[in-house]
Write a structure and sequence with these properties.
The chain has one helix at residues 156-160, and strands spanning 2-4, 17-19, 24-26, 41-43, 65-68, 89-92, 113-115, 122-124, 137-139, 144-146. It has one helix and ten strands. The strands form three sheets. A six-stranded parallel beta sheet has the order 2-4-5-6-7-9, with no helix packed on it. A two-stranded parallel sheet has the order 1-3. It is 3% helix and 20% strand. It has one domain: Ribonuclease Inhibitor (Leucine-rich repeat, LRR (right-handed beta-alpha superhelix)). With 162 residues, it is mainly β.
Length: 162
Amino acid sequence: MSGTLPAFIGNLTRLTYLSMGHNVFSGSLPKELGNLKELNFLYMDSSGVGGEIPSTFANLQNMLITWAFDCPLTGKIPDFIGNWTKLIALRITDIYSGSSSLDFIRNMTKLTELSLRNALIIGNIPSNIGEYLMLKTLDLSFNHLTGQITSALFSIDALTDL
């Protein structure tokens, strides 16, 4: 599919799954998608949709999985994503402008997958990263992070799952 992503999708307020990946959309994410308060799964990988993540997405408190990679996203990763505490998988990669810290993930201890590759992340690796006991995939490559990765990530329990 091509063209701009229709804003009327935001009227489908009972929608729980939205996949727009692998299309050739253009333009920005419609702010109306923030009306999808029951949305659990958002896949917009390789969709062509870009721009900043709208502030209305703060309403998406039921998100479980969000994939936004290979899209022309700009701006910082919004802090409100840290309020999506049900999130188990977050992939946001290849952001073209703006910079973010990892502060927004502080309460997201249910994450099993965190991929923020080439997302203009700056600052320190959170000191509590070892408390993310469910984490199976961690990709913070191609960013500007400082600090140390805690040895808790390399515990015997974690290695037995490999």
